[in-house]
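lol forgot to send this yesterday, sorry. C-alpha cells for the thing we talked abt
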C-alpha cells in the first residue's frame, strides 16, 4: 500500500527517507526494485485468515502429471488445478513420481482430514534422515554417481514422512500450510524463471518444459555428469494485478516478474519453474545455460518468460549472471516499462549509492548502454 525508501532529495542536497503511496508513479519500480534501492518500511495489505485443505501425494507418475495436453487425463497438473485451485510440485531429479501438494479453500473440516494448529508440518524435510544426509555428503565430496540413489532416497523419505506425520490430508488455517520452509531446511542453489501464459496453456508449458528438463538430465547422465542433483519445483499463480488491491489508481509494479503483458489479456497465469541443486555442483553453469535457453526461445503463442529475481539466471558455463546478451537484451525486452523504471531508479539514486557491478550490466546508467 505504501513504502518508505532512502532516496535523493535535491532540495536538501542529500539522501532522505521518503514515503510513497501505491498511487504515485515513483513507487512503480520500488515495488520490485531488484536490489537497486533501499527500502526501510512497507505497509502491506492482507486478507482475513481462512481455512485450507492441504493434500499431498507421491503416487502420480511424472509422465501423467506433465502429459502433453492432447494426452492429459484426470491427474494432469491442469486437471488438479481445475479441481483443487492451487498446486505445487516438488520433483526429485531422476525419479518418476513427484511430490504433489494441493491447497483447496475449505471452510469446514472434512471428516478424514487431520486438523493442524501450527505451520511447518513437514518435519522430515527439515530434519533429514541419516541415510539421506550420508548420501548428500558423499555426493558433495565427489561421489557424483550416487546422485540417482540420493534423489531416489529423498523421494522414499518424503513418502515415509508424509505417512508418519499424517500429512497426506490436512486441514486448518491457511497460514499453517503457506509457511513450511524453516531456516534449517537444506540450503540449495536455485535457478528459476516464470512463464506468463494463459490458463488454457498451463499444461502445454509444463509438458514442454519438463520434456526439455528431463532431456538435459538424461544427456548429462549419459556423460557421467549430474548437475541436477536435487529437485525441480513448479507452482502456478495469478499475476501482479494492481486492481486486485482495491485502491483506485494503484500503479503496476514495473519490474515485477509477474507483471501482466500489455495488449495480451489472455495471459493471465504465472507458471514458476525452479530447478535447485547443491551449491558447488560441477557443470552447474553449463546445465543451467541450456535451461535458460528454453525460456529465451519460448514461442510467443505460449507467453512471455522472465527471471525470478531472487534466483539465479543468465547463465553461461562461467556461472550465473554472466550471459551479457540475456542481461542487456533478453531480459529488458520482457518488461514494457524497463527504461522508465531504470530512469526513475537513477533519479532516486543519482549518486549510485545502491549500485554494484552487476547493476552496471543489467541496469546501466544513462548514456552507458552497450
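and heres what i got for the seq, position by position
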Amino acid at each position: 500500500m505504501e513504502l518508505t525508501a532512502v532516496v535523493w532529495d535535491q532540495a536538501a542536497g542529500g539522501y532522505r527517507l521518503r514515503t510513497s503511496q501505491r498511487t504515485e508513479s515513483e513507487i512503480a519500480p520500488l515495488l520490485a526494485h531488484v536490489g537497486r534501492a533501499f527500502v526501510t518500511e512497507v505497509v502491506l495489505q492482507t486478507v482475513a485468515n481462512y481455512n485450507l485443505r492441504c493434500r499431498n501425494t507421491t503416487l502420480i507418475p511424472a509422465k501423467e502429471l506433465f502429459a502433453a495436453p492432447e494426452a492429459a487425463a484426470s491427474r494432469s497438473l491442469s486437471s488438479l488445478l481445475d479441481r483443487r485451485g492451487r498446486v505445487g510440485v516438488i520433483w526429485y531429479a531422476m525419479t518418476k513420481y513427484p511430490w504433489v501438494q494441493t491447497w483447496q479453500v475449505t471452510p469446514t473440516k472434512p471428516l478424514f482430514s487431520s486438523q493442524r494448529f501450527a505451520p511447518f508440518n513437514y518435519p522430515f524435510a527439515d530434519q533429514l534422515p541419516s541415510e539421506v544426509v550420508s548420501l548428500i555428503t558423499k555426493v558433495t565430496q565427489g561421489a557424483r554417481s550416487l546422485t540417482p540413489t540420493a534423489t531416489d532416497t529423498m523421494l522414499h523419505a518424503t513418502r515415509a514422512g508424509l505417512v508418519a506425520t499424517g500429512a497426506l490430508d490436512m486441514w486448518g488455517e491457511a497460514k499453517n500450510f503457506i509457511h513450511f520452509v524453516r531456516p534449517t531446511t537444506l540450503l540449495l542453489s536455485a535457478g528459476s524463471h516464470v512463464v506468463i501464459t494463459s490458463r488454457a496453456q498451463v499444461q502445454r508449458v509444463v509438458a514442454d518444459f519438463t520434456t526439455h528438463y528431463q532431456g538435459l538430465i538424461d544427456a548429462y547422465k549419459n556423460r557421467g555428469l549430474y548437475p541436477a542433483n536435487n529437485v525441480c519445483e513448479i507452482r502456478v499463480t495469478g499475476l501482479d494485478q494492481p486492481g486486485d488491491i482495491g485502491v483506485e489508481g494503484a500503479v503496476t509494479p514495473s519490474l515485477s516478474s509477474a507483471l501482466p503483458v500489455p495488449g495480451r489479456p489472455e495471459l493471465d497465469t504465472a507458471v514458476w519453474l525452479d530447478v535447485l541443486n547443491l551449491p558447488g555442483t560441477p557443470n552447474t553453469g553449463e546445465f543451467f545455460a541450456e535451461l535458460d535457453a528454453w525460456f529465451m526461445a519460448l514461442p510467443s503463442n505460449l507467453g512471455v518468460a522472465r527471471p525470478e529475481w531472487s534466483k539465479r539466471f543468465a547463465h553461461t558455463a562461467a556461472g550465473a549472471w554472466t550471459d551479457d546478451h540475456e542481461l542487456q537484451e533478453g531480459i529488458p525486452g520482457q518488461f514494457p516499462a524497463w527504461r522508465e523504471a531504470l530512469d526513475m531508479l537513477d533519479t532516486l539514486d543519482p549518486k549510485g549509492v545502491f549500485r554494484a557491478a552487476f547493476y552496471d550490466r543489467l541496469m546501466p546508467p544513462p548514456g552507458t548502454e552497450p
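Residues 202-222 form the longest helix (21 residues). anyway ping me if u want another try
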